[in-house]
Amino acid sequence: MQIEAIIQKCHDSIGSCVDFIRDFCIQLRSIHLDHLEKKWISIALLVVALLVAIITIDAFFHGVNPPSKVETIDSAKLHLSKEFAESNLGVQLDANGDIVVRMVAGRYSFFPKHIAVPAETKITFRWVSMDVLHGVHIPMTNMSTMIVPGYVAEITTSFPKPGEYPVLCNEYCGLGHNHMWSNISVIAKEDWIASSSIAAAKKESNNE
Amino acid sequence: MNDAAERKLALSHLWVAFIAFIVACFMGEYQVLERSGLIPALDSPTVYFASVSTHGVLMGFVLTTFFIMGFGYYTATTSLKVPVWNNTLAWSGFWISLLGTVMAAIPLLTGNASVLYTFYLPIQAHVAFYFGATLLIVGSWIWCGIMVVMFKQWKQANPKQPVPLAMFATTANALLWLWTSAGVAVEVLFQAIPLALGWIDTVDAGLARTLFAWTLHPIVYFWLIPAYTAFYVFVPKQAGGFLFSDEAARGAFIVLAVFSLPIGFHHLYMDPEQAKGWKLLHGIGTFVVSIPTLVTGFTVIASLEIAGRLRGGKGLFGWIGSLPWSNSMVLSAILSLLMLILGGFGGIINASYAMNAMIHNTAWVPGHFHLIFAGTTVIMYFAIAYYLWPMLVQKPLFSNSMALIQLWTWFIGMGILTTPWHVLGLLGQPRRISSVVYNTLLTLAWKPYELAMIFGGLILLGSACLFIYNLAKTQLNPAPTEAFTQQIEYAESIHPVKELPEYLNDFKLWNRVIAVLMLISFGVPILQFFFMNTFGSPGWGY
């Protein structure tokens, strides 16, 4: 009994929705629009549909997305966290052999102040702020993200061309903002492997 | 109809707007000069960031809000042919907004609110700045209320009649602003002020940015709608022709109001606190909102073509030459459209979900919004001022040729200022720096562009002074001996509308559509902050 009443209600509301849409379409057709205007609106819609299609396909099938990993962290306790403790910052190889770079932004520098990474290699950056809003951009590359206190900004990219690049803070963070920058060396892949294995060997010999 | 009360109301608002404008213009020129490093004695981040914060607030909040209120009152009264509803309330709105402006200006000018116009929590300004900004917005809400009441009263008195297009557009803007300002109002009332007063210890910077993004995109359409209104309701008549399509204009205003709201995340593409799906959704909406602008471009150019041909222009392009280029409204519309085409192209790049990474927070962005706001939009504010001023003060304009020179120099100056600005962005220069201290070869490429910007800024400053001089001179001139009879003329449509379907003549349906779209696009992204394990930030100085 009750169920029937509910079904009847659903029918009614769907019916009124359909009526509304039908009514809306009739009204839409009744307004006067010049045929040239209609053509232009169609062209505009097509252009916009094309642009949206390119972006959507790139996002879904090629994984072209802006940095969007929603991950929180206590910015006041970075030094106590394991991941962003001072000894753990900079370039590291993770268990899968992928390169992960952990960086802390704070007024007014990026820490560590200088890092070296290989060219043409997938690199995952994890940026955190220890105080206010920052942003980081390495000009002429895709390495750009906001660094919001309370969140980890993760971005994966690669640098096609070796060279010395500045790392610039691109978000106002206080009166010393101009001075907030550091350096990154992008080294040819084969040289980087050589230098990192030397470093690893040195570390090992030191440990001995 | 004796509209002395309305004229005084409109004039007072417009003067506050333009005084804010000229002060901010001087600051703008100082900023390009300081930033270039040409005069080492000027170098001071303290003064620069105080100046850039004030420049942004004056241009983005004071010029626009007061201009829109003054223009709105006069449009409402002249298009509906009724007095402004509740004059006392309108004046109280004016005084509240003015009090707010002064209250915000004191900490800004003394360097106690160098947080730029986008607030930047968890950096804190002096609490007076937040109260001032709130009062400015509260005053503008009174204007919104008056516009909505006048719209409704007119509809009741004239059932089934189409609301005049000028009033339809103004009401669309009033509703848009009520929706738009809610985001920043929540941020200020629940985050900025409690933090500044010490009622709460921490704020979530991610939530603050999300709330500001609610406001940050539609606010530019709030600024732009008066320019589009002039395109539709003044330009065709001033060019000597007719509006190509009244219905298309209404459709454009509706889509602008509806779709400029649920798309603010294109300001957060590079942010870590929102997920990619939401960003993509807002990104698609951003492209949708380009449609009403494309339609506006078409309708306005078609209206100009009709005028050009009526004036004897022949051939595919002959009508362009026969347009009345010496009419300040027509000239502004042409220059405005040219800047809109270039600025719109840049905007599509900014809106592009992934390409945005290339230009995010670089000098490209202020280059873009100066072109599209200070160029496309503000040049139409000039045109409206030149058109209305004689009627507001009941005296002929002091000099039309000075107005034409002013408009041309504004256009040329804007080209010289913003082209190098865009290039600097592509060369990687960040936007919000007061001087270049990076010790890297890259900065050598920036120098010539910075110098060109000083020159562009200088032309703009001269142009702005001419504008103020012309308006002041018009008002201060002795009254003409014969009575001043010029009346405001609204363009007629080729096919005058006799009746309209209700959805093109009212906003009830569209308010519901906006509510649903806002719920979809901002519901989960805002609620997530209350379900995630988030960590707030304490307030910081700067």
Mean pLDDT of chain A: 86
Give the SSE order of chain B as H and E letters.
HHHHHEHHHHHHHHHHHHHE
Mean pLDDT value of chain B: 93
Amino-to-carboxy terminus distance of chain B: 54 Å
Regarding quaternary structure, what we see is heterodimer
The count of β-strands of chain A is: 10
For this structure, what is the CATH class of the domain at 75-200 in chain A?
A: Mainly Beta
Net shape of chain B: globular
Percentage of β-strand residues of chain B:
under 5%
Structural class by helix and strand composition of chain A? alpha+beta
Output the strand order for the largest sheet of chain B.
Answer: 1-2
Q: What percent of the residues of chain B sit in helical stretches (DSSP H or I)?
A: over 70%
Distance between the termini of chain A: 83 Å
Keywords (chain B): Electron transport, Membrane, Oxidoreductase, Respiratory chain, Transmembrane, Transmembrane helix, Transport
InterPro entries (chain B): Ba3-like_Oxidase_I, Cyt_c_oxase-like_su1_dom, Cyt_c_oxase-like_su1_sf, Cyt_C_Oxase_1
GO cellular component, one term (chain B): membrane
Domain Cytochrome oxidase subunit I profile (chain B): 1-528
Would you kindly provide a written description of the structure presented here, covering whatever features stand out?
The complex is a heterodimer of chains A (208) and B (542). Chain A has helices at 2-30, 35-61, 189-207; strands at residues 90-93, 99-106, 109-111, 114-118, 123-129, 134-137, 144-147, 153-157, 163-169, 181-187. Chain A is an alpha+beta fold. Chain A has a domain at 75-200: Cupredoxins -  blue copper proteins (Immunoglobulin-like), CATH 2.60.40. In chain A, the strands form two sheets. In chain A, strands 1, 2, 3, 5 and 8 form a five-stranded mixed beta sheet that branches. A five-stranded mixed beta sheet of chain A has the order 4-10-9-6-7. In chain A, a hairpin with a 5-residue loop joins strand 1 and strand 2 (99-106). The longest helix of chain A is centred in the first third of the chain and has 29 residues, at 2-30. Chain A is elongated, with a radius of gyration of 27 Å. The N and C termini of chain A lie far apart (83 Å). In chain A, 30% of the residues are buried. Chain B has 542 residues and is mainly alpha-helical. Chain B has one domain (4-476, 497-532): Cytochrome c oxidase-like, subunit I domain (Cytochrome C Oxidase, Chain A). Helix content of chain B is 70%, strand content 1%. Chain B has 18 helices and two strands. Chain B has helices spanning 4-36, 45-80, 87-109, 127-157, 165-197, 205-216, 218-233, 235-238, 246-259, 276-288, 290-310, 315-321, 328-351, 356-359, 364-393, 400-426, 447-476, 508-531; strands spanning 202-203, 537-538. Chain B has a two-stranded antiparallel sheet with strand order 1-2. In chain B, helix 2 runs parallel beside helix 4 (127-157), helix 2 packs antiparallel against helix 5 and helix 9 (246-259) runs antiparallel to helix 11 (290-310). Chain B is globular, with a radius of gyration of 23 Å. The chains are: A alpha+beta (208), B mainly alpha (542). Chain B: One of its GO terms (cellular component) is membrane. Chain B: The chain crosses the membrane at residues 12-33, 53-76, 88-109, 129-151, 172-200, 212-235, 247-269, 281-307, 328-349, 369-389, 401-423, 451-472, 513-532.
